[in-house]
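so i finally got all the pieces together for this one. its two components total, 806 residues if u count the protein bits. some of the lines might not be protein, just check the labels. i wanna see the whole assembly predicted at once instead of chain by chain like last time, that was a mess tbh
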Amino acid sequence: MAESSGTGRLNRRSLFGGAAAAAGAAGIGWGAVTLGDRQTGDSNDPTAAATEPFYGEHQAGIETAPPTHAAFIGFDLRPGTDRDDIIGILKIWTDDAARLTQGRPALADTEPELAQRPARLTVTVGLGPRVFTVAGLPQHRPSWLRPLPPFDIDRLEPAWNDGDLMLQVCADEATTVSHAVRVLGKNVASLVSVRWVQRGFRNVAPGQTPRNLMGQVDGTVNIAPGTPDFAELVWDDGRAHPWLTGGTSLVLRRIAMTLDTWDEIDREGRELTVGRTLADGAPLTGSRELDEPDFTAVDAHGIAVIPQSSHIARAHHTSDRERFLRRGYNYDDAPPPGQTSNSGLLFAAFQRDVDAQYLPVQQRLAAFDALNVWTTPIGSAVFVIPPGVRSPGRYLGQTLFES
Amino acid sequence: MAESSGTGRLNRRSLFGGAAAAAGAAGIGWGAVTLGDRQTGDSNDPTAAATEPFYGEHQAGIETAPPTHAAFIGFDLRPGTDRDDIIGILKIWTDDAARLTQGRPALADTEPELAQRPARLTVTVGLGPRVFTVAGLPQHRPSWLRPLPPFDIDRLEPAWNDGDLMLQVCADEATTVSHAVRVLGKNVASLVSVRWVQRGFRNVAPGQTPRNLMGQVDGTVNIAPGTPDFAELVWDDGRAHPWLTGGTSLVLRRIAMTLDTWDEIDREGRELTVGRTLADGAPLTGSRELDEPDFTAVDAHGIAVIPQSSHIARAHHTSDRERFLRRGYNYDDAPPPGQTSNSGLLFAAFQRDVDAQYLPVQQRLAAFDALNVWTTPIGSAVFVIPPGVRSPGRYLGQTLFES
């Protein structure tokens, strides 16, 4: 056992010798041994070894095909933190994310082996409104960066709202997500407190839109990376705020599903509520999921085939500018005492301009959407997503602090 | 849109016509349309389409290679339930599990499409001590079926303890687990209340033992299906209780990990605490994970290479009869306010005889295990796992109620 002789013997003695408790404490601060920068991914396991690029014009986790697991974490800056602290946090997260996403341990990673399965890990960082106040940069805050206006359908619980900083951590393995969340959180724990943690999951099958826990194909109408409109709808062009070029915004809504009453609705009632078939998500005027819904079609009795109150009729963009990227996850937490389910949707929408793209759709849905009977927004937060880190040596959000 | 004419028109009218609210309620009770018994699995997606057999001498979910996701649900019988109610629950669960595990919707499944991805779903049913009292069958209760004795290390929270009935639901997709848990729970909701829900996950890589959230390879010492000892250690032979032939027991311990203080221990300290290397889980006296630890080896200074207080030294069975099947999962829930992590292990142990196999090991660990500083049992439950259902027409636990 040559590897644990030498200084190790002292360590062993201190932990397990006669004066175990006192000497054990002396072991603190010797520092964790990391695996260094070696690529340690498990190349025999393609899912575990797969990586998504970290550096680029945009942050990862937006164009990236959504992995099976996600965690969204909202943080509050602790009292007394300042501009330099925010920069420090962003530098640490940049370094951590650059390593972890490539299957390498973070600096001083105390569980370096848990970094060996990146499993398409992405880390996406967002800033809340207060960052601009604390950092003394109110003039650089996008006008849409503020809590959404209240909607009648909202039953927001403060525990799920807002936040000064946000991490979206996604991967195809839950352990990978847990390790990354732990590393990213603890390395800045002296500067921030955790406001909320929201974990979600989705099925991933090639060419298939996943289903939510109401059983619906969810997310059919979406904008796909590589399409002509994607860049225009998602990525900021820097016109209002040059620092934000290549960035975007995230609206995260926690939408509870009342499955007990949803269960009371029969299959056709459900399809008319949504405007799509349950079997394959085709609009009620079509035969395939991706068919364009015909909101003008009526049946022999003159009744709209897709009810005007249906979810897809209300959610449908009235102009091409109202579209946004949906990248949602199901959630299913332990139910509170006396209840059978605690399930719903982490609705994550990315768009260049919250006011111009997201809000009009949300306002129509809030005003009337047949689905509202069974879905309730219980959390709401808006973040600006800074552009990506173009090269090593730079950090997330640097363009903001240099502007 | 031929499929929604006919009776559907009435339904549509009732939901979306002038008297929407009142007529909508009339739609309740028309019953959900199911997909019937057609095999609807997605054969283009091998992970999603994979199934584990339901019928057999033993329940599935024990010998079955552990999938990536698990949920354990503890239920209490509602006041006033009796023997017939318990039989009713077990019949419903048998029918639900026989269908869902094979990729078919449950009877009157309101989200039949969510059954299309069985993803190696297994459903394992356990009975708590009170079932034998309520059913008037105290003479058939195994002697070991009772709460574990208290241990000094325990900080049990009643919310995670005990239960009258237990479901273990495992699959390789989280949505599949959620759907199955929902179906199984709601179909018996009038007879039981949910006591606790514990969700977990683990990596699955061929030939690799997964790691826990402390970073350790966890579960090396285990008994594998197909080995000569497995049947003798896990499956009841019916000697004490003929009805239990082919059954077993489950001990479920919820073990919280104090990662904040674990972080303060350096790498060698951690290895000495566990008795294994972090890199590959080899015992400190060996070079490969599966090497047999040599608890007698000493270094040049006469100090044990594997400390006597280390986890593997304390956990090691002192006789072959003390072994059991470990089938644990990591958990990582949202932390309570002010904390950074809420993580740990759902330690699930299957054995023929809790008193003879599990208890001696647990007693040694509780008396002293170097790991106890960073791990705390906060939940504990024991269940008897009835034998499997050998053929259609029979139900889980039938041998008990016929004996």
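The beta strands of chain A are 69-77, 122-127, 165-171, 192-201, 248-257, 325-326, 329-332, 343-351, 375-385.
The longest strand of chain A covers residues 375-385.
anyway lmk what u think
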